[in-house]
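ok so i was messing around last nite and threw this chain in just to see what happens. nothing serious, just curious
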Amino acid sequence: MKRINFDRKQQRQLRHKRITNTLKACENQRPRLVVSKTDHHIYAQVIDDATGKVIASSSTLTLKLKNDNITNAKVVGQDVAKKALAKDVQLVAFDRGGNLYHGKVKALADAAREAGLKF
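result:
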């Protein structure tokens, strides 16, 4: 029997597990663009699951951006896309980390698409 009355953290963890398992099971074996958030920062990494290595990463912490808002998420998306394209990675699978696809996560994804990543 399913438990419906999870708190928000448990619901996000279940979504994250389901999404990650789906992406890893795909036969295309593209690197994953993983997005994770905290209350103050947003992080993005391009991970190659075959080797287990991080290809490119960026965050508001490394870019020394003060607030975690939508404009800073766009800057992080452009930066991670620029770093990934420098290492000849154009096709990625987007892993939103269990977060809902709106706000900062959507802004980061749109900025990465505009910078040249395809997913």
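not much to say yet. Helices lie at 8-25, 70-86, 104-115.
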